[in-house]
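Q: What would this chain look like folded?
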Amino acid sequence: MSKLRIKLGGRIHTCRVRVLYGDTDAGGVVYYGNYLRYFERGRTELMRENSISYKGLEDAGFIIPVVESYLRYKASARYDDLLQISTCLTRVRQVSCRFDYEIRRVEDGCLLVKGFTAHAVVDRAGKLSKLPGDVLAALTAIAAAV
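A: My prediction, written as structure tokens:
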């Protein structure tokens, strides 16, 4: 088993999502790939809460695609479970950043999955770019709380 370090600390953002029937597979559990969508929800809401929007970045000509991801599955979520997504920004560089996550079932607090996503900053042409100064400062302030 991989022992990649996932650390939640400092400024942790939490949000909740209810599992939709369409998120599950034939076995009635959340399809494994959907956890990446839940991660996306967590980081989008973390950024929005801190006055940084993906839409604003895109309007400025920047995209921050996932370039690496890691998920460690611990237990299954099922249809209609209420999940809590905890997200923190653990690393910020001029051209990259990393978010760490934990997803738990609200009802019993069971840890379902933990992981991270690493992102590059690119322009519309796909060329590696530096974050705008104000965005870099805002993200650095969030990560400094870790």
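The domain at 13-144 is CATH 3.10.129.10 (Thiol Ester Dehydrase; Chain A).
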